[in-house]
Write a structure and sequence with these properties.
Distance between the termini: 25 Å
Structural class: alpha+beta
Number of strands: 11
Shape: globular
CATH architecture of the largest domain: Sandwich
Strand content: 15-25%
Number of helices: 13
CATH superfamily of the largest domain: Regulatory protein AraC
Length: about 300
């Protein structure tokens, strides 16, 4: 029952309990429009969002807050350890492994990508990064999630949508500590709005090999030098930010089963690279693995 119902329906993952320990599990779930809140306790177990399961096309975002024990999370060719109180964001359309060595408890929220991506320009860059337990926004989010799970959510649609907005805002603040919240504090008002618009335009057009800072600046009605300064204040040059977006998109395509037969060179060209050797060098520098190694790891 746990494997078939909670594994494939609630967690949407394969459950493999540790053979040497008795299996123990409990879950409380609250479902709101576009949002699912979970509180779970699990004995030693491995949860895997497999290639078979990501074929369902679901790309919801999942924020896991570890409450007790520790969780090892593997994805994107790397591994992260969540200690008590730490949190991490993952995407449902990527192969991911969550593993506990002993019983532990966690909170999780599963939210529609469109809700969170409207608050964070580069939501994919925020995944697989530890949000430390010292984060004030994370503490607020954790308390709010616990209260919502413990108390039955209001029945009126208006209040439910307001609750989802509050949760999304707190999650965005917690994730924003990785970059956006800090940078927006430095460039307030119109400059912040222009930087956000520029990043959105880049994400939507990163596959164009002719994309340039001049093109983006013209789209926004500003000078290239002004736009370059906005990116520099944010911590990266325009070129570096564009490069990272193309690499992120390539990584996601390499991990998707529907692109498993597509040549690495074709993916490189599709995301905006004109030089395959340059793509391979940049990809390895960012992820520590070659594109083929990432594809092979995603297939296991």
């Amino acid at each position: 029952m746990w494997r078939e119902h909670f594994g494939r329906v609630a967690f949407r993952a394969e459950i493999e309990p540790a053979e040497e320990q008795p299996f123990e599990a409990n879950v409380t779930s609250r479902i709101l429009p576009g949002l699912n809140l979970l509180r779970s306790g699990l004995s030693a177990v491995r949860l895997t969002r497999t290639r078979e399961l990501i074929a369902d096309g679901n790309d919801d975002l999942i924020l896991v807050v570890n409450r007790t024990g520790s969780i090892e999370i593997a994805g994107r060719g790397g591994e992260v350890l969540l200690r008590e109180g730490d949190a991490l964001l993952r995407s449902s359309d990527e192969v991911t492994v969550f593993e506990r060595a002993c019983y532990g408890e966690a909170l999780a929220l599963r939210i529609q990508r469109s809700i969170l991506s409207s608050l964070i320009v580069d939501v994919d860059a925020a995944t697989m990064r530890v949000i430390p337990r010292q984060s004030g926004a994370l503490k607020l989010l954790t308390c709010y999630m616990k209260a919502l799970i413990d108390e039955r959510a209001p029945g009126t649609p208006e209040l439910q949508h307001l609750i989802v907005k509050h949760v999304a805002d707190l999650a965005a603040l917690a994730l924003g500590a990785t970059r956006d919240a800090e940078s927006m504090a430095k460039v307030r008002g119109m400059p912040a709005a222009r930087l956000r618009a520029a990043k959105t335009y880049i994400i939507e057009n990163s596959a164009r090999r002719d994309l340039s800072i001049g093109m983006v600046a013209a789209h926004l009605g500003v000078t290239p030098r002004y736009l370059q300064r906005l990116f520099e204040v944010d911590g990266k040059t325009f070129s570096a930010w564009l490069l990272s977006q193309r690499l992120i998109r390539a990584h996601r395509l390499l991990c998707k089963s529907q692109f498993s037969e597509q040549a690495v060179s074709a993916i490189a060209y599709d995301v905006g690279f004109g030089d395959l050797s340059y793509f391979n060098r940049c990809f390895r520098k960012q992820y520590g693995l070659t594109p083929r190694e990432v594809r092979a790891a995603a297939a296991t």
